[in-house]
Design a protein that fits this description.
Layout lengths: L1 H4 L15 H19 L6 H22 L4 H18 L11 H10 L15 H25 L2 E3 L4 H34 L2 H17 L8 H25 L3 H14 L2 E3 L1
Antiparallel strand pairs: 1-2
Helix pairs in contact: 2-3, 3-4, 3-7, 4-5, 4-7, 6-9, 6-10, 7-8, 7-9, 7-10, 8-9, 9-10
């Protein structure tokens, strides 16, 4: 694939080379401060959790860009756009539209192949798009059927505003940051050093762990087990999609459809 033929970093470089430690420290301190102020009732209670999630997404996307050898200001801006979108989403009815800014910025950066190292070298073929859509529908459909039959959940139709806000969050933070880092950055780096299977295992394990520590994940044993199964399957398949299609776009599409199906589930 392109990333193997034109590596952006020497093979001998450390796996975590170019990590923006200073930026990650700023994000962590900001999230911790917001969480502390929320617990002291200085800020509204949801503020702490929102800040932690925004910092996490921003850290993943910023690290992916830094590993792709983009300038520090580029990574900082990407993280800042996610943090601002998270803040705006709770301030106004149309606030979630701010989540469109991060993918637009990534699209601008991808022009001219500047993000080829992340699996965004240019236009993707129809076969790749079709494969991503099909896998997303298959996994999402299987989730809806199995979860509604065995986990005490039911399929619900969310309100339009709720559905659009969730979609904007996935497009601009959740899915975008996860796919750019775990597939575009971590998997691509790992497969330059080790076998395909080892790279998939590392990237997928890290991907699953990211969601297990997500404060939005319901802490019921059966739901956690189900999440591990589906996220591991989605992560491994998306690694293969990137390797096969030479593009991150199919994996982005499959993940967006899968999370749309996940958000259609609610308590019975």
């Amino acid at each position: 694939m392109w990333a193997l033929e034109h590596p952006s970093a020497p093979r001998t470089a450390r796996l975590f080379a170019d990590t923006p430690v200073a930026l990650l420290t700023v994000l962590a301190v900001g999230a911790a401060a917001s969480l502390a102020l929320a617990q002291l009732a200085v800020l509204p209670p949801p503020t702490g959790a929102i800040a932690v999630l925004a910092a996490g997404h921003g850290a993943l996307l910023a690290t992916a860009l830094a590993w792709a050898r983009r300038p520090p200001a580029t990574a900082a801006l990407a993280a800042g756009l996610i943090v601002l979108a998270a803040a705006a989403s709770g301030l106004a009815p149309f606030g979630p539209l701010a989540y469109l800014a991060p993918p637009i910025w990534i699209g601008v950066l991808a022009r001219g192949g500047r993000l080829a190292a992340l699996g965004l070298p240019g236009p993707v073929g129809l076969k790749g798009v079709g494969a991503g859509l099909l896998i997303g529908m298959l996994l999402g459909g299987h989730l809806l059927v199995s979860a509604s039959g065995t986990l005490g959940l039911q399929i619900r139709v969310p309100a339009m505003r709720e559905a659009l806000a969730a979609l904007a969050y996935d497009v601009g933070a959740n899915v975008l940051a996860a796919e750019c880092f775990f597939r575009g950055a971590l998997f691509n780096r790992a497969q330059r050093r080790w076998s395909f299977a080892a790279a998939v295992t590392l990237a997928t394990a890290a991907y699953v762990l990211r969601y297990l520590i997500d404060p939005l994940l319901p802490m019921r044993v059966e739901l956690v087990v189900g999440a591990v199964f589906y996220l591991a399957l989605l992560g491994a398949i998306n690694c293969w999609l990137l390797w096969w299609s030479e593009s991150l776009v199919p994996g982005l599409l499959s993940a967006l459809i899968f999370f749309a199906a996940y958000r259609a589930l609610g308590p019975a």
